[in-house]
Write a structure and sequence with these properties.
This protein is an alpha+beta fold. Helix content is about 40%, strand content about 20%. The chain contains 6 helices and 7 strands. Strands 1, 2, 3, 4, 5, 6 and 7 form a 7-stranded mixed β-sheet that branches. The longest helix has 21 residues. It is globular.
Length: about 190
């Protein structure tokens, strides 16, 4: 798995995202900061027995399974020193605030967690998002396990509705944006 490609796709897909534009407000450095962040995020998911999927070099998804192990401190690799300038005290504080409210809202019931799904802007609208989610959603349906995500962009809600997700409220970041937590009950597939 080429985490550089995964990170670039996610960064391109989230460049104009309301939440990540709040975390990284400088449009001139945001793309590079997002590439570093998504590379770290993907490595963290893989280190917790998660999935990082890549489709047609245009779409990526990152999932954690139900009850994943905690991240091993030994497995955590800090970003390279040449990228540290992206993580100013203000950025770190916004990340901490975002993480705190997301963690507080995260459901306790076992579920698959969709942490990221992103499609390059020039490839959006072609069905890649639905295709990349299908294997895990089918697994959820077969195993009778729900799924959870936080949508950071209200524009994406109709896409999630079509996949069977429903909104469960709002997560308001203090002095920041709003996220939309969503839950998907497994669909009855008729399979044993």
């Amino acid at each position: 798995m080429d985490l550089g490609t995964v990170a670039r796709i996610a960064a391109d897909g989230f460049y104009d995202d309301p939440v990540l534009s709040w975390v990284f407000p400088d449009p001139d450095t945001r793309l590079d900061a997002l590439v570093v962040s998504f590379r770290q995020f993907a490595a963290r998911f893989l280190g917790r027995n998660g999935r990082v999927d890549l489709l047609a070099d245009g779409c990526t998804a990152m999932w954690l399974p139900p009850d994943p192990p905690e991240a091993s401190p030994d497995a955590e690799t800090p970003p390279p020193p040449e990228t540290w300038h992206h993580f100013t005290p203000d950025v770190v504080a916004r990340f901490a605030s975002l993480s705190a409210v997301m963690d507080a809202a995260h459901p306790d019931a076992p579920h698959w967690y969709l942490g990221v799904v992103a499609t390059r802007p020039d490839r959006q609208g072609g069905g890649l998002g639905a295709r990349i989610l299908a294997p895990v959603l089918e697994l959820c349906d077969r195993q009778g396990v729900p799924a959870y995500l936080e949508s950071s962009n209200p524009r994406n809600l109709p896409f999630y509705y079509r996949q069977g997700w429903v909104e469960t409220g709002e997560i308001v970041v203090p002095e920041g944006p709003t996220l939309f937590p969503m839950w998907r009950e497994p669909r009855i597939t008729g399979r044993a």
